[in-house]
Protein backbone atom coordinates (compact mmCIF):
# COMPACT_ATOMS: atom_id res chain seq x y z
CA UNK A 1 0.00 0.00 0.00
CA UNK A 2 1.33 3.46 -0.90
CA UNK A 3 1.94 6.00 1.83
CA UNK A 4 -0.66 8.71 1.97
CA UNK A 5 0.24 11.82 0.00
CA UNK A 6 -0.40 15.01 1.97
CA UNK A 7 -2.77 17.66 0.64
CA UNK A 8 -4.79 15.15 -1.36
CA UNK A 9 -8.06 13.46 -0.46
CA UNK A 10 -8.51 9.73 -0.88
CA UNK A 11 -5.85 7.06 -0.98
CA UNK A 12 -4.47 4.49 -3.36
CA UNK A 13 -3.21 4.69 -6.92
CA UNK A 14 -5.38 5.70 -9.84
CA UNK A 15 -7.00 2.87 -11.77
CA UNK A 16 -6.07 4.56 -15.04
CA UNK A 17 -3.36 3.00 -17.22
CA UNK A 18 -1.19 6.11 -17.16
CA UNK A 19 1.32 6.17 -20.03
CA UNK A 20 5.05 6.19 -19.45
CA UNK A 21 6.58 9.66 -19.04
CA UNK A 22 3.22 11.22 -18.18
CA UNK A 23 3.63 14.81 -17.05
CA UNK A 24 1.82 16.74 -14.34
CA UNK A 25 2.05 20.24 -15.81
CA UNK A 26 1.06 22.32 -12.78
CA UNK A 27 2.67 21.79 -9.38
CA UNK A 28 3.78 24.15 -6.60
CA UNK A 29 6.20 23.47 -3.76
CA UNK A 30 6.19 25.52 -0.55
CA UNK A 31 8.96 25.95 2.00
CA UNK A 32 8.83 28.30 4.97
CA UNK A 33 12.55 28.90 4.46
CA UNK A 34 11.47 31.33 1.76
CA UNK A 35 9.33 34.21 3.07
CA UNK A 36 5.97 35.02 1.54
CA UNK A 37 5.77 38.17 -0.53
CA UNK A 38 4.13 41.22 0.96
CA UNK A 39 0.44 41.13 0.16
CA UNK A 40 0.37 37.41 -0.64
CA UNK A 41 -3.20 36.10 -0.32
CA UNK A 42 -2.43 32.38 -0.08
CA UNK A 43 0.16 31.18 2.45
CA UNK A 44 -0.07 27.38 2.49
CA UNK A 45 1.89 25.05 4.79
CA UNK A 46 5.11 23.47 3.58
CA UNK A 47 4.75 20.99 0.70
CA UNK A 48 8.05 19.33 -0.17
CA UNK A 49 9.60 17.42 -3.04
CA UNK A 50 9.34 14.25 -0.95
CA UNK A 51 5.63 14.92 -0.39
CA UNK A 52 5.09 15.36 -4.12
CA UNK A 53 6.87 12.09 -4.91
CA UNK A 54 4.20 10.38 -2.80
CA UNK A 55 1.56 12.02 -4.95
CA UNK A 56 3.26 10.76 -8.10
CA UNK A 57 2.77 7.23 -6.78
CA UNK A 58 -0.97 7.89 -6.75
CA UNK A 59 -1.29 9.67 -10.09
CA UNK A 60 1.24 7.58 -12.02
CA UNK A 61 3.03 10.63 -13.43
CA UNK A 62 6.80 10.67 -13.87
CA UNK A 63 7.47 14.19 -15.10
CA UNK A 64 6.45 17.50 -13.57
CA UNK A 65 6.27 21.20 -14.30
CA UNK A 66 6.81 23.30 -11.20
CA UNK A 67 5.34 26.80 -11.12
CA UNK A 68 6.32 29.65 -8.80
CA UNK A 69 3.14 30.36 -6.82
CA UNK A 70 1.73 33.79 -6.05
CA UNK A 71 2.83 33.28 -2.43
CA UNK A 72 6.44 34.05 -3.33
CA UNK A 73 5.98 36.98 -5.69
CA UNK A 74 9.01 36.96 -8.00
CA UNK A 75 11.19 34.93 -5.61
CA UNK A 76 11.90 31.75 -7.59
CA UNK A 77 14.11 30.01 -5.04
CA UNK A 78 11.54 27.36 -4.13
CA UNK A 79 11.06 26.66 -7.84
CA UNK A 80 14.80 26.30 -8.42
CA UNK A 81 15.09 23.93 -5.45
CA UNK A 82 12.34 21.78 -6.97
CA UNK A 83 14.08 21.69 -10.34
CA UNK A 84 17.34 20.67 -8.68
CA UNK A 85 15.57 17.87 -6.81
CA UNK A 86 13.83 16.41 -9.87
CA UNK A 87 16.49 17.05 -12.52
CA UNK A 88 15.71 16.27 -16.19
CA UNK A 89 12.26 14.95 -15.21
CA UNK A 90 11.13 18.49 -14.40
CA UNK A 91 10.70 21.87 -16.01
CA UNK A 92 9.81 25.21 -14.45
CA UNK A 93 7.64 28.27 -14.95
CA UNK A 94 8.99 31.33 -13.15
CA UNK A 95 7.64 34.72 -12.13
CA UNK A 96 9.81 37.66 -13.12
CA UNK A 97 9.60 41.42 -12.93
CA UNK A 98 9.79 43.65 -15.97
CA UNK A 99 13.32 44.72 -15.08
CA UNK A 100 14.74 41.18 -15.04
CA UNK A 101 18.14 41.01 -16.75
CA UNK A 102 19.03 38.82 -19.71
CA UNK A 103 21.64 37.11 -17.53
CA UNK A 104 18.97 36.21 -14.96
CA UNK A 105 16.74 34.77 -17.69
CA UNK A 106 19.60 32.69 -19.09
CA UNK A 107 20.38 31.39 -15.60
CA UNK A 108 16.76 30.36 -15.12
CA UNK A 109 16.81 28.61 -18.50
CA UNK A 110 19.93 26.66 -17.54
CA UNK A 111 18.08 25.39 -14.45
CA UNK A 112 15.12 24.12 -16.46
CA UNK A 113 12.75 27.08 -16.64
CA UNK A 114 10.81 27.20 -19.90
CA UNK A 115 8.22 29.90 -19.30
CA UNK A 116 7.01 32.79 -17.17
CA UNK A 117 3.70 33.11 -15.38
CA UNK A 118 1.64 36.24 -15.01
CA UNK A 119 -0.99 35.72 -12.33
CA UNK A 120 -3.36 38.61 -12.79
CA UNK A 121 -5.90 37.09 -10.40
CA UNK A 122 -3.90 36.73 -7.18
CA UNK A 123 -0.38 37.80 -8.10
CA UNK A 124 1.32 40.88 -6.67
CA UNK A 125 4.09 41.29 -9.26
CA UNK A 126 2.78 41.78 -12.78
CA UNK A 127 0.12 43.74 -14.65
CA UNK A 128 -1.65 43.25 -17.96
CA UNK A 129 0.46 46.04 -19.44
CA UNK A 130 3.55 43.88 -18.93
CA UNK A 131 2.31 40.96 -21.03
CA UNK A 132 3.80 42.10 -24.33
CA UNK A 133 7.08 43.53 -22.96
CA UNK A 134 7.79 40.36 -20.99
CA UNK A 135 6.83 38.14 -23.91
CA UNK A 136 9.38 39.97 -26.05
CA UNK A 137 12.04 39.47 -23.37
CA UNK A 138 11.61 35.69 -23.20
CA UNK A 139 10.95 35.02 -26.89
CA UNK A 140 14.67 34.55 -27.75
CA UNK A 141 14.80 31.70 -25.22
CA UNK A 142 11.90 29.87 -26.85
CA UNK A 143 9.78 30.22 -23.73
CA UNK A 144 6.04 30.65 -23.34
CA UNK A 145 3.90 33.00 -21.27
CA UNK A 146 1.52 31.36 -18.82
CA UNK A 147 -1.48 33.50 -17.93
CA UNK A 148 -4.08 33.38 -15.18
CA UNK A 149 -6.60 36.20 -15.44
CA UNK A 150 -10.26 36.93 -14.67
CA UNK A 151 -12.42 36.20 -17.71
CA UNK A 152 -13.48 39.84 -18.08
CA UNK A 153 -9.84 40.90 -18.35
CA UNK A 154 -9.05 37.97 -20.63
CA UNK A 155 -11.66 39.09 -23.14
CA UNK A 156 -10.15 42.58 -23.27
CA UNK A 157 -6.73 41.14 -24.12
CA UNK A 158 -7.70 39.51 -27.43
CA UNK A 159 -5.55 41.75 -29.63
CA UNK A 160 -2.51 41.51 -27.35
CA UNK A 161 -2.69 37.73 -27.00
CA UNK A 162 -3.13 37.21 -30.72
CA UNK A 163 0.05 39.16 -31.50
CA UNK A 164 2.44 37.77 -28.88
CA UNK A 165 5.83 36.52 -30.10
CA UNK A 166 5.49 33.49 -27.79
CA UNK A 167 2.72 30.97 -27.13
CA UNK A 168 0.34 31.74 -24.28
CA UNK A 169 -0.58 28.97 -21.83
CA UNK A 170 -3.88 29.30 -19.99
CA UNK A 171 -3.87 27.47 -16.68
CA UNK A 172 -6.88 26.29 -14.67
CA UNK A 173 -9.23 25.86 -17.64
CA UNK A 174 -8.48 29.51 -18.50
CA UNK A 175 -10.43 30.35 -15.34
CA UNK A 176 -13.67 29.72 -17.23
CA UNK A 177 -16.70 28.49 -15.33
CA UNK A 178 -18.23 25.41 -17.00
CA UNK A 179 -21.47 27.33 -17.63
CA UNK A 180 -19.50 29.66 -19.93
CA UNK A 181 -18.77 26.86 -22.39
CA UNK A 182 -19.92 28.00 -25.82
CA UNK A 183 -21.59 31.08 -24.29
CA UNK A 184 -18.91 33.50 -23.17
CA UNK A 185 -16.58 35.60 -25.35
CA UNK A 186 -13.59 34.49 -23.26
CA UNK A 187 -14.31 30.84 -24.06
CA UNK A 188 -14.57 31.65 -27.76
CA UNK A 189 -11.27 33.56 -27.57
CA UNK A 190 -9.42 30.67 -25.93
CA UNK A 191 -10.75 28.19 -28.49
CA UNK A 192 -9.72 30.46 -31.37
CA UNK A 193 -6.20 30.83 -30.02
CA UNK A 194 -5.90 27.07 -29.49
CA UNK A 195 -7.04 26.33 -33.02
CA UNK A 196 -4.66 28.94 -34.44
CA UNK A 197 -1.71 27.31 -32.68
CA UNK A 198 -1.15 30.43 -30.58
CA UNK A 199 -2.08 28.95 -27.21
CA UNK A 200 -2.24 25.93 -24.93
CA UNK A 201 -4.66 25.24 -22.09
CA UNK A 202 -4.11 23.32 -18.87
CA UNK A 203 -6.89 21.12 -17.56
CA UNK A 204 -5.80 22.02 -14.05
CA UNK A 205 -7.53 23.39 -10.99
CA UNK A 206 -10.87 21.99 -12.07
CA UNK A 207 -11.98 21.89 -8.46
CA UNK A 208 -11.59 25.69 -8.44
CA UNK A 209 -13.72 26.49 -11.49
CA UNK A 210 -16.33 23.74 -11.10
CA UNK A 211 -19.76 25.09 -10.22
CA UNK A 212 -21.07 21.66 -9.24
CA UNK A 213 -18.29 20.92 -6.80
CA UNK A 214 -16.90 17.80 -5.18
CA UNK A 215 -16.71 14.93 -5.47
CA UNK A 216 -17.82 14.44 -9.08
CA UNK A 217 -17.19 17.79 -10.82
CA UNK A 218 -19.38 16.48 -13.62
CA UNK A 219 -19.86 19.95 -15.08
CA UNK A 220 -16.20 20.06 -16.12
CA UNK A 221 -16.70 17.46 -18.86
CA UNK A 222 -18.27 19.79 -21.44
CA UNK A 223 -15.60 22.44 -20.86
CA UNK A 224 -12.79 19.89 -21.16
CA UNK A 225 -14.32 18.41 -24.31
CA UNK A 226 -14.61 21.86 -25.88
CA UNK A 227 -10.83 22.18 -25.72
CA UNK A 228 -10.01 18.57 -26.57
CA UNK A 229 -12.32 18.58 -29.58
CA UNK A 230 -11.10 21.95 -30.86
CA UNK A 231 -7.34 21.40 -30.53
CA UNK A 232 -6.29 18.09 -28.94
CA UNK A 233 -2.65 18.86 -29.68
CA UNK A 234 -2.77 21.98 -27.47
CA UNK A 235 -4.18 20.55 -24.22
CA UNK A 236 -2.20 19.75 -21.06
CA UNK A 237 -3.10 18.39 -17.63
CA UNK A 238 -2.02 19.48 -14.16
CA UNK A 239 -2.91 18.42 -10.64
CA UNK A 240 -2.41 21.88 -9.09
CA UNK A 241 -1.00 20.07 -6.05
CA UNK A 242 -0.84 20.97 -3.16
CA UNK A 243 -4.09 22.81 -3.84
CA UNK A 244 -3.34 26.05 -2.03
CA UNK A 245 -6.89 27.40 -2.21
CA UNK A 246 -8.26 24.14 -0.81
CA UNK A 247 -5.70 24.27 1.99
CA UNK A 248 -7.05 27.74 2.73
CA UNK A 249 -10.56 26.31 3.00
CA UNK A 250 -12.02 27.77 -0.19
CA UNK A 251 -12.82 24.32 -1.66
CA UNK A 252 -12.80 20.72 -0.44
CA UNK A 253 -9.42 19.03 -0.88
CA UNK A 254 -9.51 17.16 -4.22
CA UNK A 255 -8.61 13.50 -4.72
CA UNK A 256 -5.76 13.55 -7.23
CA UNK A 257 -6.17 9.93 -8.26
CA UNK A 258 -9.76 10.78 -9.09
CA UNK A 259 -8.59 13.82 -11.04
CA UNK A 260 -6.60 11.45 -13.25
CA UNK A 261 -9.68 9.25 -13.67
CA UNK A 262 -11.70 12.28 -14.77
CA UNK A 263 -9.03 13.17 -17.33
CA UNK A 264 -9.06 9.66 -18.77
CA UNK A 265 -12.81 9.93 -19.22
CA UNK A 266 -12.53 13.27 -20.98
CA UNK A 267 -9.77 11.96 -23.25
CA UNK A 268 -12.00 9.04 -24.30
CA UNK A 269 -9.18 6.76 -25.55
CA UNK A 270 -5.55 5.82 -24.89
CA UNK A 271 -4.19 7.81 -27.84
CA UNK A 272 -5.81 11.02 -26.63
CA UNK A 273 -4.58 10.42 -23.08
CA UNK A 274 -1.06 9.83 -24.40
CA UNK A 275 -1.25 13.11 -26.28
CA UNK A 276 -2.34 15.15 -23.25
CA UNK A 277 -0.02 13.54 -20.71
CA UNK A 278 3.09 12.83 -22.77
CA UNK A 279 3.26 14.21 -26.31
CA UNK A 280 1.94 17.72 -25.72
CA UNK A 281 4.09 18.41 -22.62
CA UNK A 282 7.14 17.02 -24.43
CA UNK A 283 6.60 19.52 -27.22
CA UNK A 284 5.92 22.56 -25.06
CA UNK A 285 8.47 21.97 -22.31
CA UNK A 286 11.20 20.14 -24.23
CA UNK A 287 10.98 16.73 -22.59
CA UNK A 288 12.08 13.56 -24.34
CA UNK A 289 15.28 11.62 -25.12
CA UNK A 290 16.55 14.29 -27.48
CA UNK A 291 15.48 17.24 -25.32
CA UNK A 292 16.63 16.45 -21.79
CA UNK A 293 19.64 18.76 -21.90
CA UNK A 294 19.17 21.97 -19.95
CA UNK A 295 21.94 23.86 -21.73
CA UNK A 296 21.33 27.46 -22.66
CA UNK A 297 20.49 27.76 -26.39
Brief summary of the model shown:
The protein is α/β, with parallel strands linked by helices.
Describe the structure.
This protein is of the alpha/beta class and 297 residues long. The protein has a single domain, classed as Alpha-Beta Barrel (TIM Barrel), CATH 3.20.20.140. It is built from twelve helices and eight strands. It has helices spanning 49-59, 77-86, 102-111, 131-138, 151-156, 158-162, 185-195, 206-209, 220-230, 244-247, 256-267, 270-285; strands at 23-27, 63-67, 90-94, 113-119, 144-148, 168-170, 199-203, 235-237. It has an eight-stranded parallel beta sheet with strand order 1-2-3-4-5-6-7-8, sandwiched between helices. The longest helix is centred in the last third of the chain and has 16 residues, at 270-285. It is globular.
Q: What's the order of the H and E elements? A: EHEHEHEHEHHEHEHHEHHH
Overall number of domains:
1
Shape: globular
> Main β-sheet, in a few words?
8 strands, parallel
Provide the CATH architecture.
Answer: Alpha-Beta Barrel
Number of helices in the DSSP assignment: 12
CATH topology: TIM Barrel
Mean pLDDT: 94
Assign the CATH superfamily.
Metal-dependent hydrolases
Any idea of the CATH class? Alpha Beta
Unreliable stretches: 290-297
End-to-end distance, in Å?
A: 43 Å
Radius of gyration: 17 Å
How many beta-strand segments?
8
Sequence of strands across the biggest β-sheet: 1-2-3-4-5-6-7-8
Hey, roughly how much beta strand do the residues contain? 5-15%
Q: What level of helicity do the residues show?
A: 25-40%
Sheet/helix structural class = alpha/beta
